[in-house]
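Thread: "does anyone have the structure for this chain?"

Original post by V.I.:
We have the sequence but no experimental structure in hand. Need at least a predicted one for the grant figures.
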Amino acid sequence: MKIKNSLLIGNDINSLSPGYDWGKLLNELVIYVGAENLISNLREQFPLFYEEICIFAATHGTKSEFEIKQFIGEKVQGLEPNKIHNQLLSLELNEVLTTNYEFTLEAAFLKSRVEFKNEGIAAETRHSIFRHCHIGNKRFWHIHGDAHTPNSIALGYEHYSGYLQGMRNYVVSGTGDSYKNFRLEPLVKRLQVGPIICVESWLDVFFTHDVHIVGLGLDFVEIHLWWLLTFRARAASNRSKLLNLNKIYYYYPTQREDLDKTKLRFLRANNVLIQACDRPNNDKSIYYKNVIRKIKSNMKLRK
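Reply from O.Q.:
Generated one for you, tokens below.
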């Protein structure tokens, strides 16, 4: 049986776009809430840093969490697509997952600005198990929320933990009575019937398509994504009927082998296929072109 392909695209792709500076945005955020003394370089611990910002804002009555997320959503929406966005979207696949809140990928594919409209079977206001839109022959899944719906932007441990609970329910328990208009059996049960299922959630994609992870740091604070990887690996190791017919590929710069050795070790332990790509002179443009070449090669081998 032929396995289809998908992408999971992280925030680092945006660093090639003019004017993009995540660090600057965070500094502007703490100034926005009146917490200049919190300006920090702890970017890799952003979920905890975000909680610190929210607690400060709530304690001092400066901004609500909705206003904080709205500020972030407005700031990222001005981002312009770059060549790597375009080249990734030229790959022969239909499912595009992203942790990014803005709509740069859609704009790159459509060649113009797009008004995102959530087409998920549930009108989610906070979590993003079903959040997606169709453009042409591609489906774009905003798994961390979208900038047009500030409350959906996944930031901080409180949001991550609630999201993880919903993800686990979808995979293990099913939707139950959580939604008025539909009820879905647990994903694991549907997969035991056969590998071809109706895709209603990005979680379905994660278990039925080869997933090529690009530009995503996968820091350990991303507890919901690490849970998903470990659940998938445990299911295979326990020889359950939920076998891993699909493959998960993680692309990273060869130059970070030593810096990321712990993360890479745990990814390998969870049946993720590590794909090292050269990043000469720290040139991200060349690096991502190397990544795209390797993705094409892996896709060809799976035909």
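V.I.: this helps a lot. The mean pLDDT is 90.
O.Q.: and Residues 5-12+80-301 form one domain.
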